Amino acid sequence: MSNSPSVLELHIADAKDRPMVAVDSVSAVAGRGLLGDRYYTGTGYYSDIAGWGAQVTLIQSEAIQAVNTGYDTDFAGSMLRRNIVTQNIKLDSLIGKTFRCGHAILRGTKPFPPCAHLAYLLGRKEVLKCFAYCGGIGADVVGGGDISVGDSISIIEPEDGG
Fold this sequence. Notes:
CATH superfamily: PK beta-barrel domain-like
Largest sheet: 8 strands, mixed
Helix content: 10-25%
Radius of gyration: 15 Å
CATH class: Mainly Beta
Oligomer: single chain
Structural class: alpha+beta
CATH topology: M1 Pyruvate Kinase, Domain 3
Strand order of the largest sheet: 2-1-6-5-9-8-7-11
Number of helices: 4
């Protein structure tokens, strides 16, 4: 097992409130998001909200595991309605950075704590507290390409000043 940053799971939902479906591979389209996902088609719960700030959402598998252990919960990546579950990378380090995810190029936009709508869909308001500081990040697709489970993730933009 590699310790390299990579994609552990991929999920899309074709419309708001529809279940997230695990996929092995998905096409990321620049300026749109993931082909077949609710935000790509403009049918997501927040699609009409100015400043939503993400065409794709990511969450760390380690955060899910830590919450499940610390709070004795059973959250899974698909339940949290994030598109990409990662491993071996601190997602906050990608905010404001351009990075390669598989063959796509993404740019981290902002932290994405869980919302009240997610708590409503799950019927579990504890998700708000549990993931308040580790709910993942949003990203925009700046260069299209396929993303597959197992693909590597790497920053392609040098740090400021370096």
